[in-house]
Design a protein that fits this description.
Number of helices: 11
Number of strands: 9
Shape: globular
Strand content: 15-25%
Distance between the termini: 52 Å
CATH class of one domain: Alpha Beta
Radius of gyration: 20 Å
Structural class: alpha/beta
Helix content: 25-40%
Oligomer: single chain
């Protein structure tokens, strides 16, 4: 069987299929689907009658027009013209924390939250767009709005017997392959344990909080949601690879649109001056089956 990359090169594999075949989509854990009392995930029903959302999602067009040389520098972005029933869309807020151990990443996120998230959330709530909060599982499960509060404890994921447990834990004969322990790991663990949802982005009313991709899927299935707008942090980490992140939810069949001005990534010494990791993650999504737009464009497309 040919590999996915050669198949897409030969034009026989769609962008979405390539992404599902070739990309890791998170932890891969499977849990029983959660339900709210009465058998369905609970969401506020506040949509205006026949309310529509008008957007122009952007993607990277691999193709070129007839007569144009088929080379990378001739490919470019393109946009579509979509009208979506408002009740079929939701804004998913991923890991919007009140602090970060990398201070420059924290400063960028803080600026985005105050300048972009605040007006976006106000207008989305006014229009009746569903908002779903997706912090990491330990923090989601502490929140009063966590949809699993009325459920029995989740069953732990069962691991396959290959690779061997010792290889997974890099113990025993595989210990030489373990990454070295960092001298400030305990400090970092403490900082992570103190994370909270950012005060500007706290759930309002009964906005649901989810801990897993299964929970996000159940909320969407119960409410008939098909289009997911993503915002949050970090672009090249949780936004991509959480099991409730963009790749996993796209793999489940949802249309995924990242708000590219409502995210930033974790950069390195080399990438930080140009935010190359952030921009690369955005382009990756645009190239392989997802879309992006700005928060201002989303706000402009909301029904009055």
């Amino acid at each position: 069987m040919s590999d996915p990359l050669s198949r897409i090169t030969n034009g026989s594999l769609a962008r979405r299929e390539f992404l599902i075949s070739a990309a890791a989509v998170g932890a891969g854990m499977s849990f029983a689907a959660p339900e709210a009392p009465g058998g369905e995930a609970s969401l506020p029903q506040k949509f205006k009658e026949n309310a529509q959302l008008h957007i122009a999602p952007r993607y990277h067009r691999w193709h070129v027009d007839p007569g144009v040389d088929w080379i990378e520098t001739n490919t470019a972005h393109a946009t579509l013209d979509w009208t979506i029933p408002l009740e079929q869309a939701a804004l998913v807020l991923v890991d919007v924390w009140d602090h970060h151990y990398l201070k420059d990443a924290e400063a960028r996120a803080e600026s985005i939250i105050n300048e972009r998230f605040v007006p976006l959330l106000a207008e989305c709530r006014k229009a009746g767009l569903t908002i779903i909060h997706a912090p990491s599982p330990p923090h989601a499960e502490r929140h009063a709005n966590w949809i699993g509060n009325s459920k029995p404890p989740r069953r732990p994921a069962t691991a396959d017997d290959w690779p061997p447990p010792a290889f997974r834990s890099k113990s025993g004969p595989f210990a030489p392959y373990r990454r070295p322990e960092e001298p400030r790991e305990a400090e970092l663990a403490l900082l992570r344990s103190q994370l909270q949802i950012h005060p500007q982005v706290m759930p309002v009313g009964n906005e649901p909080v989810v801990a897993t991709g299964d929970e996000l899927h159940e909320v969407c299935r119960s409410a008939g949601i098909l289009f997911l707008f993503f915002a949050g942090f970090n672009t090249n980490a949780c936004i991509l690879v959480r099991d409730y992140g963009t790749l996993a939810m796209s793999g489940r069949g949802y249309e995924v649109i990242l708000l590219r001005d409502c995210t930033t990534g974790m950069e390195s010494r080399d990438s930080q001056p140009t935010l190359a990791q952030t921009n690369g993650a955005i382009l990756f999504l645009e190239m392989f089956g997802q879309y992006t737009m700005t928060s201002e464009e989303l706000r402009a497309g909301l029904p009055l």
